[in-house]
Amino acid sequence: MVLPLVNLCAKEVVSDHSSSPGWLGCVPRELYRPLLEAAFSNCRPLAVGELVQRWPERTLRAGGRRQGQSPPNRLCVQALLLAVVRGLSDKRCALQVLDLCGLQCEEGGVGDPMGGWSLTVALSTMVVQARAAAQRSLGREGERERKRVLAMERERDVVKRERGGGLEEGEGGGLLVESVRKEKEETSGCLREDQQVKGVRRRMEMERRKESAAVAGLAGGKVGEGEADSKVDSEVVVCVRADLFVNARSWERVRAALGTTGPLKLQCRYVRVEELSVSSIGSLLDLLPRHVLLGVDIRYSCLGVAGLALLLPQLSMFPMLSSLRLHYCNLDIRRDMAGQEGAMKEMSQGLGKLSQLRRLSLTALRLPGHLRMLLSSFPQPLEVLELPYLSLTPADLSYLSCSPHASSLQQLDLSENRLDELALPSVRRLFSQASSCLMQLSLSGCGLTDGLLAAMLPSLSCCRGLKSLSLALNPLSLAGLLDLVRMAVRMPSLRQLLYPNPLEDYQPGLPPMPSSAQLLDWPLDELVEVHEATSLQLDRVVMESGRSDLILTCDLLNYNKDLVEQ
């Protein structure tokens, strides 16, 4: 990729930190963005800090990455956060909104990036420390003003003693006392006003908000809760938007940051929760701003059906919530428990109140036979439905194929739900209903044999918009795999195919009908010739079709279905 000239020049400018005093004072605001991107990409934390501290625009978006762009280095992210705090008292900084959504990545990746948990802790610490620094500064200003007033009072007493009692009763003494009193009142008024603000930016922000509040008052604005929110927001200088990762170790720090009112206000777009109790998750939801949250991801928490039913009314208070993901949350209802059916109905009713929900992911919740109860209450059809390890029954698949969701699904994950001859008609009908919109499909670990796949391929080939197809860990022979690839090359929109290793590639001893767990654990044949022969046959099919844009892979660990969207 050829970089634009401005990017090449920005890279050279930030590479030498000793020259920064020469260009920081005269660089135009239009060049701040390419300079900051160059500082991030070349790991120049000092340049990042100096640019952010003087940021000339109201909004700074540092999250999200383009294709091929590496995530920012941990040191650069830390420098950015420190510069935001320093910029609170810098009159050159115009920053009001810091958007870090999408900045986090996996811990320990290439280039030492900052993971979601580390970023959440760093942001929470920054918010709390900024509040403490503001309070200390106000305390110091108040102490200086108090000392000045005391000094003025002592000076007044000295003047009175020097002039004697005559002037106190005369006209001159009265004027002196009156002037001293007025000066004291003015000084006290200035003290009260100055204690509410800190620095030039805080005063300007306060004046702007007071003018807006006055205009709203003349127009007949709301009172009560709105006034309370305005009072809290009057202290905010910068709103920080980010995706948060909260677990038992970071919960207390995140709670302190979300409950703090100060110059920095933490807002959350997507929140991921792990290993928290129902009460803690409820407390977290109460602290999150209502009109910002778009998605909730709860993992490894023992919610139970009753616990989830308690959380759903809280989730319905977020009008923009479009994604709900529940992973390994212990909703197993195969065991008979008192009141479980009533809790299921409450959960269904709660899901129905999530009017903007478009993505639902239920992983390993073990809810056989209850898919109709879960999905029928939604007022709008879902676009993304992920149901791996859900123990779906033929009745569940029959409902899904006839439901309003079928014709709107763009992404569907049925991995690790065993498909047999009884489920085959429903699956084929589901593919037919979703043929015009389905873009990503995962059927990994579904027990698909050569015969089942052959019966399914005609319906699957009708999905003309399909871009990503995953069929790993299915017991296919080499002949069945070749049939799959021949069908894939005839689908012009398909860009990625995750195929299973054929049974011939495994070492001897594999059961006739192996499960996905057995296929995952069983060793492959150590002979290189075996794997090369399989790859050659697959590549020959692709080459004969003339397709150069189709990626075939059997690497389950490194497969990324979202690459087709980048």
UniProtKB/TrEMBL annotation:
Keywords: Cytoplasm, Leucine-rich repeat, Repeat. One of its GO terms (cellular component) is cytoplasm. Transmembrane segments: none annotated. It is found in: Cytoplasm. It comes from Salvelinus namaycush. This is Leucine-rich repeat-containing protein 14. InterPro entries: LRR_dom_sf, LRRC14/PRAME. The gene is si:ch73-174h16.4. It comes from the Eukaryota. Gene3D superfamilies: Ribonuclease Inhibitor (3.80.10.10).
